[in-house]
Amino acid sequence: MGLFERYLTLWVSLCIIAGVMIGQWFPLIPKTLSKFEYAHVSIPVAILIWLMIYPMMLKIDFSSIVNATKKSKGLCITLVINWLVKPFTMYLIATFFFKYVFINWIGTQLATEYLSGAVLLGAAPCTAMVFVWSHLTKGNPAYTLVQVAINDLILLFAFVPIVVFLLDVSNVTVPYDTLLLSVVLFVVIPLAGGYISRKYIIKNKGIKYFKNVFLKKFDNITIVGLLLTLIIIFSFQGENIINNPLHIALIAVPLIIQTFLIFFIAYGWSKSWKLNHDIAAPAAMIGASNFFELAVAVAISLFGLKSGAALATVVGVLVEVPLMLTLVKIANKTRYWFDISKN
Q: Residues 282-292: pLDDT tens digits?
């Protein structure tokens, strides 16, 4: 392991602290960066995520995408967990904590709003960062691309009915500009860039140069992009963290429990079905992580910028990266659980 990977937890902690300090002491920086936003998607963060995803797209042998669609067991796990399990476990866990355990601290009104934000997170599986988590666990890049594409298609039709059913609200509309922009930025552009780059380099330099020289140039790009993304995200939310530490901690509790629960359900199911680790890890990661851009956008449009629902989705953003890095570490340390000689 390189320096970055060996001390990743330390770098992440330092970047979180740096982000909060920048948000508090140099508020002009996040204020300026926040101006570069379209359809609730931060363009600076989008660029960094693109840099994280691009190296993974380079590794996709596009002829293997067809084979990835044939891995029905892995896709079955992904789809069942994301659409038949995750939204409902989120609702039950969040209801238990917000409506009962924490009710004396937050009150009835905020309990309902925090529950709404948690449900919005649970109903939106990850689109972008799952590529990063898959990369860090040496997941199958073609399979990850296929599962993201299928989930994006289902999201178009399933998100609204699930939210309406669980929250008993009306007039829920998907901000399609957020959804489409995210798909273009986080899937289409890096996929096209990876395909063109791979084809050009192999044609002019050969496959050995591509694998042994060109790919190695991007070894640390994903980690550097991840750390810079953390600094920006936490600089945006520095004031929220300082002003609402107790409520942020309370909101984080059910989100953390939900994340670990969904991961281990999918991961354990993958093991019981004897899937390869490079399929099992991304299958578990996509369910554990969330499409937070969509959740934040819907929370703001439904409940308002200053609502508890919006704050809950923001806490989802804050806890996701540290949590997912923990799950990456768990997945990597348990690789031996999976017999790679079997499908």
A: 999 988 988 87
